Amino acid sequence: MKSFLKNLVLFTILLLISCENSDNEDSNIPPNVSFISPNEDLSIALGDILDILVAADDPDGQVDTVYIEFNGENIAQITSIPYQYSFNTSFETPGTYELKAIASDNLGALSTTTTILLEITEFVIVPPTVQTLPPTFIGLFGADVKSTSTSFGTFGPDQTGICWDLTPNPVFDENGSNFQFPTGTTNGISNYNINSLEPGTTYYFRAFATYYDDLDSDSIAVTYGDNIEVTLSSEFYTETGMFTDTRDGEVYQWVTIDGMTWMAENLRYSDNNTNCIEYYDDVQDGMNYGNFYRLCDVCPDGWRLPVQEDYVALINYLGGTNRAGKYLKSNNAIFWNTEFASNESLFSALPGGYKVQPDLDSFETGVGEKAYFSYLDEEDVNTNFVSLQDFNDSVEYNDIDSAAGLIWMSIRCIQE
Fold first, then answer.
1. Does 2.60.40 match the CATH number of domain 129-231?
2. In the predicted model, what is the mean pLDDT of the chain?
3. Other CB atoms within 10 A of residue 193 CB
């Protein structure tokens, strides 16, 4: 009898516990779950990353796990805040898919978000766009042309440049010679100093940009700007003549090159200002090359000393530093090797050398070998000059440190 009563009590206790657990399960409130991002249907390109962020909480317990489902397939299980996942679409195929989030609580109750429709579209690469800008300088053998990138497209430009041809719509050919990459870029504007063309010829210039046109970044395409039509100058000089220096009666030839009128002979003016003027040791050299000068006010009335920009414009017009020397040098075989001296510009540069006085004594250097023409540079205390040599076509910009002593060189004045 006692055994029966004992078993009856135990059964009653178990029955009560079972009923209590059943009541707890029936009263459990499911968790709340919703999308923060994305929060509406959307379309993205194949290969894009979709950042998914879910909000989930449980009013009478705690959230156990948040599941992310893509088209019915579980792609992520997240067990702690923040409930977020970055979904890479690169391995999917274009189409429309369902996106859901499911939250479970500590008692196993589940809640599901509303379904978001995700459209994955074909990946379209947008090319960069470039603009061809008008030339800032036109010379005999080329022009200074500019370009700019107006938009970067999907990947941005790999390289930018300028190409040209005798007919419209030139194309970039990396194995050809009719293109140039920038010589410099300032404030988004790319610069091109092109000086290998034919005088008097019309060319068409076009900016280009290369870019990768697939996801693997191993295929290169080219996009272009508009055409710019440029006709190069055809004349080395436009006018020439003679003038007389009223101070001493010396007569000089002048020549107009690209709108600037230069003395076509070295200055020969003499006065008692020995600090400004020096003379050649050999009288015949003085007859050939004029006098040496420091950068004093020695030009005739109506003429001025040149500045660097004057020589830059002159040299660029005649083809740049690699070739202008040939056209600037006198073609008199007494002074130069005529292989490198043709004087089409009538500038008639001569190898007058220069004189330097490092201490009490002065000496000449380069006479009969090189031409040196000094120019003003108010921001530089050194002696700045351009030089021409006997054995090539080049022109060089140089300076001599003021610590070397007093420097005198040939001067060519410019008409004001």
1. yes
2. 89
3. 16
